[in-house]
Amino acid sequence: MIELSYWTTPNGHKITIFLEEAGTPYKIIPVNISKGEQFSPDFLKIAPNNRIPAIVDSAPVDGGAPLSVFESGAILEYLAEKEGKFLPAAPREKYEVLQWLYWQMAGLGPMAGQNHHFVTYAPERIPYAMERYIKETNRLYGVLNKRLADREFIAGAYSIADMACYPWIVPYERQQQDLNDFPHLQRWFNAMAARPAVVRAYALAKEINPAPTVTPEAAKILFGQTALK
Fold first, then answer.
1. Which whole number is the average pLDDT over 57-86?
2. Does residue 50 register a pLDDT over 90?
3. How far apart are CA 55 and CA 18, in angstroms?
4. pLDDT attached to residue 229
5. CA–CA gap between residue 165 and residue 163 (Å, rounded)
6. How confident is the model at residue 26 (pLDDT cuts 50, 70, 90)?
7. Positive or negative CA dihedral for 194, 180, 15, 150?
């Protein structure tokens, strides 16, 4: 059984997509980040960066004590290796997947996240910051579009790279992007959205957080953190 500490963000969706695709038994522990639940002592024991998602595997492959993992990319890699799914064993194919997983972790996610912040949540409109991150998001969409020009999925076969990238493309309108400008990406996006496991993962998110909003109080929690908090 996997215990998943989760909230309804792109990084959270990555893990529910994997678990639904793999058919892995799991239990969700909601961590409402808008209420500051990510700072609870119990959560910090398994996620010292106070960010969701995190997992606890009660039956790790070494047969030892329950194993916790934080950071969504590491979680995807751990689960894929444990289940033997969505991450090839052969080195060339494996690193084809992992380089795109890390591309999402280091590029698409952070840049789209800054896009979200300055376009939607920042208390003041800063044209330079907005333009900077909208353009960088656009560039990254272009990289992915070219990658998908001659293959069905990002690394050829369906993999954790697709699961990692898709949730960050879902808010494309919020990111000021038009999928019509990226036909190969759009084709992949539509195929991903139609996968039954993806549909189930997003339906689950709506059950847990049916009306996601960021109130002024929540913004102070989400965007005002320092080392002292």
1. 97
2. yes
3. 13
4. 63
5. 6
6. very high
7. positive
Amino acid at residue number 101: L
What CATH number is associated with residue 117? 1.20.1050.10
Residue 127 has, within 13 A of its CA and on its CB side, a CA count of 0
Residue 174 has pLDDT above 90, yes or no: yes
Co-location of 151 and 95 in the same domain: yes
Is 120 in contact with 174 (CB distance < 8 Å)? yes
Residue 224 has what pLDDT? Answer: 75
| CB 221, CB 36: distance < 8 Å | yes
Angle, CA 82 vertex, CA 76 and CA 88 arms, to 5°: 75
Asked whether residue 133 is domain-assigned, the answer is: yes
Q: What CA–CA distance (Å, rounded) separates 221 from 49?
A: 14
Q: Are residues 96 and 162 in the same domain?
A: yes
**Nearest C-alpha neighbor of 62 from the set 85, 78, 48:** 78
Range 213-225 average pLDDT = 76
Count of CB atoms situated within 10 Å of the CB of 174: 12
Domain range enclosing 9: 2-85+200-223
The residues that bridge with 70 in the sheet, in sequence order, are: 54
pLDDT for 53 beyond 70: yes
Helices (H), the chain: 10-22, 41-46, 72-83, 91-103, 109-116, 127-147, 160-169, 183-194, 196-208, 216-223
Q: What is the pTM of this model?
A: 0.95
